[in-house]
Amino acid sequence: MNDENDKQNGRVPRDFDSLRSVIIDRKSTMPKRLMQVAAYALSHPDEIAFGTAASIAAAAEVQPSTLVRLAHHLGFDGFSDLQTVFRERLRDRNLSYEERLATLEKGAANSEDELLSGFIAAAGQSVARLAQTIDRKDFSGAVALLARAETIFLVAKRRSYPLTAHMAYAFGKLGIRHQVIASPNGIDAEIAAFATPRDAVIAASFAPYATESLAQAQALHERGVPIVAITDSAFSPLAACASHWFEVTEADYGGFRSLSASMVLAMALPVAIAEKRRSLDRSGKTAAKA
Asked: What is the CA radius of gyration of the chain?
């Protein structure tokens, strides 16, 4: 059993980053229900830290016993032992946003001011979490890949669509060739067919994932077009087909989830790509002169 071996070898993950790595390593072999609750845990770490077994199980749509099974599968003595990892993650963090949201969410907003404050707090929490979790090296790698692409194709539907709308605007202003795969006359597949391995894709989707976005991204991946994904979990279908992917967990207020942290990436990527292209162009000119 994995849990017994982990205990014997002292490999039970005792910090959030190690736990996340273990879950990602095992996701292909993890039973379906355990994978479901593990995906929820990675996407909602604060809820795991603060919630009860019953409330977490209800939110993840599993039985409470599944939480115990997951804990044992990962080598922990029980769910409370696993939960300490999520609580330790918060120990040195400023919890003002979480505390404020918890207070606001106890009841419906009584005023416009309270409603506005709730959304501002959720947006701030999302951006702060991105700042703490994003891998800078992976961001640089994604920028390098996209900077070398002949055309950057943009894939997003439904709630994620504003990200591609902004990136398309920015790419246009920066003189970077791009193509949004979204057409009012239903020729998305024909637009996507123009993409080749010399191009690249930025795809965005969050649970519940847009079926059309996933299908388009998978089809492009199968044709060898590299993909950079913006999504919400290591268990996202987009992560499985992406060369680089960014995990963005957006806080919500009253069940309404923003795009605050995701929009930070949508703003940063085009500018970083433009700067990288200028750098590559300068390097090429220097090499030609030499």
From this structure: 21
pLDDT value of residue 244: 94
Smallest Cα–Cα separation from 74: which of 133, 138, 31? 31
Cβ partners under 8 Å of residue 231, min gap 6: 204, 205, 206, 209, 238, 239, 245, 246, 247, 248
Q: How far apart are CA 17 and CA 9, in angstroms?
A: 19
Q: Where are the alpha helices (DSSP H) in 92-151?
A: 96-104, 112-133, 136-147
Tokens standing for 48? 């795991």
User: Please, what is the average pLDDT of the chain?
Assistant: 85
Query: For residue 104, what pLDDT is reported?
Result: 53
H-helix or E-strand containing 42?
Answer: helix 32-43
Is the pLDDT at 1 greater than 50? The verdict is no
- pTM of the predicted model over 0.90: no
**274: Cα within 13 Å, side-chain hemisphere:** 15
